[in-house]
Design goal:
Layout lengths: L7 H10 L6 H6 L9 E4 L6 H14 L13 E4 L3 H14 L7 E4 L5 H10 L3 E4 L1 H9 L10 E4 L2 H6 L3 H10 L5 E6 L4 H10 L4 E4 L10 E8 L4 H12 L3 E5 L3 H13 L4 E4 L5 H13 L4 E4 L12 E6 L6 H8 L9 E8 L3 H11 L3 E5 L3 H13 L10 H13 L2 H14 L60 E5 L9 H12 L6 E6 L4 E5 L4 H10 L7 E4 L20 H4 L176
């Protein structure tokens, strides 16, 4: 199906890029019903959404004109969630509108804002940017949206997940209300629908996603590995597929740094991509992938949205994604534009259930299996070497002469062996990996439709086995041969609650081995000795030496003594107890108690009962005195032995009065008059006294007040201030050093006061 009719300038650009047939989403936006309307489009990743909204906006931007007029205020605004996606959209729109003479300006975080300001001042037809930087330019007055005709929101669900809702609303509120709004998203969540209702008018909803149909161009694989061999599985996956471009996804920046350094040490051409890198470093990493200088990119989810890398045929999930949306967007980096791709999930044995839930929620079928072994990788290398297209290329005269010279000195076998060694030296060595089949039976495809039938009975289509019959259990793989095995010592014993439940995973993780290589385990009080097979001894010893931990130490040791070594003690039977030897007395029921009998001695209610003194008062507070700090408890009370102390002489009290003075005659109190009654007359009651008004002139002077010497000499002199202070002392008539100056500027005694030189 050829492209529908569109603008002539865009048709020429598509033909120059080799676009012959449109994708479903591109064909949908070019239909007659979608022309001039707001669009709400949901399409899977890699379906050509960038070219789709570029074609959809062309009739509104160009109309009947062949080219754009002089650049001024922007006519189209494209908002993308990440810098990488914004740069990629800018690149796509540049070649798409190149024939129409469009000026496309990029405004993203991490770039020079002043350069972007100058570009906006010169004028632009299309502006592509991230929400934060676009809002900053609008607030500063550098971006004028008065002439805006089309607003495009690319990967709108990702922008909402990243917390850009407030910035998006600010930008859309600043744009004219009569604009067209094109909203593109991989999923149409509730937040996306609410945003569309708020900022779109009569939007046409286009859905090109097959709900029960997974991505047809992506092959999903679930690779089961031991938890300590995740890194080896990633190395073998990269070596087995040998894709020109591969993406390895991690969940954290620390994981990206660690895996990037390990792959680099093994000889892979690898780059890292995470949010902690600057914009220049991220751009250089992506450019290295596009140019072919790097073959592997270790990245966080920052690279999971919208990036289109050429020849990207492999995506590896080193750590399981957090949800199905992340799984789909990560996997969507491959299998784009009709090309095939592989998405491999590295699943540790302990995360198998989580991986099954992710695949089932995403509606995809994963092929379960182990990681490629070293033998499989070597066989694949041999196949690629024999089918290398370099053998089909014609040789020139220089090559023929060199071949003849080499055949004269070397045999064809030697030349072929040298070619193989030279090619193998450029490739990283595969890792020896173990796949435990007990953890990895393929659960089979599980589709959404199989969970329930038409009647709603979830279990109607299932054939249950009889109770107790659970099918054939897979046979366990025999353990490794323990002949000539080696013993190691772990500095943890029974005193530290050592238990094989957590010792075996610890040994496997530190020694990079599996459970089958571990033999006997002997736990003692302060240490533990365990057995390692001979084939894993060297590998285990090297891994333990490379691992440095302060709390765990593993060292080689000798085999412990057998449990049955030495003569066994003979234990005599325990003699029976004395009470067991005595004859048992016959049981007799206890006679009933007589209520009339007297209470026992010192019992409550008895005559001789003496209550015990309580240590609590009547208010319930304890009478005991608490000990103070550093106070020793008192000793036991010992009564004083009065018989040993010397006795004082007894003197009888003298009879008779204590003194020889005569006694006073007793008089009753009422008959005896008071001593001061005759001296002062008794004061009359207040009611009997006459009230006399106060007269200050009639008041007599107090006898103790002395009259003033100048009394009656005339009016007082006016006050002229305090008198100067004069010092009597060693300097004669001169005032003392630092003393106060005379008042009113007069010199006492007519002499000049002393001044310090």
């Amino acid at each position: 199906m050829p492209f529908p009719a569109s603008h002539p300038a865009l048709e020429r650009a598509l033909a120059a890029q080799g676009y012959l047939e449109p994708t479903p989403v591109q064909a949908a936006v070019l239909e007659a019903d979608a022309e001039g309307r707001d669009l709400l489009v949901s399409a899977q990743t890699g379906s050509g959404k960038t070219v789709a909204f570029g074609l959809a906006a062309a009739p509104t931007l160009l109309g009947d004109a062949d080219k754009f007029s002089k650049a001024g205020a922007p006519m189209c605004l494209v908002i993308a969630p990440t810098r990488e996606l914004a740069i990629q959209v800018n690149r796509e729109l540049t070649w798409l509108y190149a024939e129409a003479g469009a000026v496309v300006v990029n405004c993203v975080g991490g770039m020079d804002a002043r350069r972007e300001q100058r570009a906006l001042n010169f004028g632009a037809h299309i502006v592509v940017g991230t929400p934060g930087r676009l809002r900053d330019h609008i607030e500063r007055g550098h971006l004028d949206l008065s002439e805006l005709k089309v607003a495009v929101l690319d990967e709108a669900d990702e922008m909402l997940d990243m917390g850009f809702r407030e910035d998006l609303e600010f930008i859309l509120d600043a744009a004219p209300a009569e604009r067209r709004t094109l909203l593109f998203s991989a999923t149409l969540a509730r937040e996306i629908v609410q945003l569309a209702k708020s900022y779109q008018n009569d939007a046409l909803r286009i859905d090109t996603l097959g709900r029960n149909e997974p991505h047809r161009d992506i092959e999903y694989r679930a690779v089961r590995v031991a938890p300590n061999e995740t890194e080896h599985a990633i190395v073998n996956l990269l070596r087995y597929f040998e894709s020109p471009g591969a993406l390895v996804f991690c969940n954290t920046r620390e994981s990206v740094r660690a895996l990037h350094s390990k792959l680099r040490e093994r000889g892979f051409a690898v780059v890292g991509l995470s949010g902690e890198l600057s914009q220049r470093e991220r751009a250089d990493a992506l450019q290295a992938l596009r140019d072919g200088h790097a073959r592997v990119c270790v990245a966080t989810d920052v690279a999971a949205r919208g990036l289109d890398l050429p020849d990207l045929g492999l995506v590896i999930h080193a750590e399981l994604p957090v949800n199905k949306a992340t799984l789909l967007h990560r996997s969507g980096r491959t299998g784009r534009a009709g090309k095939k791709g592989v998405s491999a999930l590295v699943v540790p044995y302990t995360r198998r259930r989580k991986a099954e839930q992710l695949l089932m929620a995403a509606g995809v079928e994963g092929q379960w299996g182990g990681a490629p072994t070293a033998d499989e990788i070597r066989a694949k290398d041999q196949e690629r070497l024999l089918d290398d297209p370099i053998f089909a290329e014609p040789s020139n005269e220089d090559d023929a002469g060199l071949v003849a010279a080499m055949l004269e000195k070397r045999t064809p076998e030697e030349l072929a062996a040298a070619l193989i060694r030279a090619r193998r030296a450029k490739l990283p060595a595969p890792e020896e990996i173990y796949d435990d089949p007990r953890h990895g039976a393929d659960p089979g495809p599980r589709a959404r439709g199989e969970r329930s039938n038409d009647r709603g009975d979830r279990f109607a289509d299932r054939d249950f086995a009889p109770r107790g019959d659970f099918g054939d259990r897979p046979e366990r793989e025999p353990r490794a041969d323990m002949s000539n095995s080696a013993w190691f010592r772990l500095n943890t014993g029974r005193r530290n609650n050592a238990d094989p439940k957590w010792l075996i995973p610890l040994i496997c993780r530190l020694g990079h081995i599996t459970k089958k290589d571990i033999g006997s385990i002997r736990i003692f009080d302060y240490d533990t000795k365990f057995e390692i097979s001979a084939e894993a001894e060297v590998k285990f010893g090297a891994a333990v030496q490379a691992t440095v931990r302060d709390d765990v130490t593993i060292t080689p040791t000798t085999a412990p003594a057998a449990r049955d070594a030495g003569p066994r003690k003979e234990y005599a039977p325990r003699p029976p107890r004395d009470d067991n030897d005595a004859p048992r007395r016959e049981y007799a029921p206890r006679p009933p108690r007589d209520n009339d009998r007297a209470p026992r001695a010192n019992a409550p209610g008895s005559r001789d009962h003496t209550p015990r003194p309580s240590s609590f008062g009547a208010d319930g507070v304890s009478n005991a005195k608490p000990y103070a700090r550093n106070e020793e408890p008192k000793r036991d009370y010992k009564p004083r032995d009065r018989d040993e102390a010397p006795k004082r002489d007894f003197k009888p009290r003298a009879e008779g009065p204590r003194s020889d003075a005569p006694k006073r005659e007793f008089k009753p109190r009422d008959e005896a008059p008071r001593a001061h009654a005759e001296a002062a007359p008794r004061r009359a009651p207040r009611t009997d006294r006459e009230s006399v008004p106060y007269d200050p002139a009639a008041t007599s002077e107090k006898p103790f007040r002395k009259p003033r010497a100048d009394a009656g000499a005339g009016p007082a002199k006016p006050f002229k201030g305090p008198k100067p202070f004069k010092v009597k002392g060693s300097f004669g008539d001169k005032p003392a050093f630092g003393g106060p100056k005379p008042a009113f500027g007069k010199k006492p005694g007519g002499k000049t006061p002393f001044k310090k030189k």
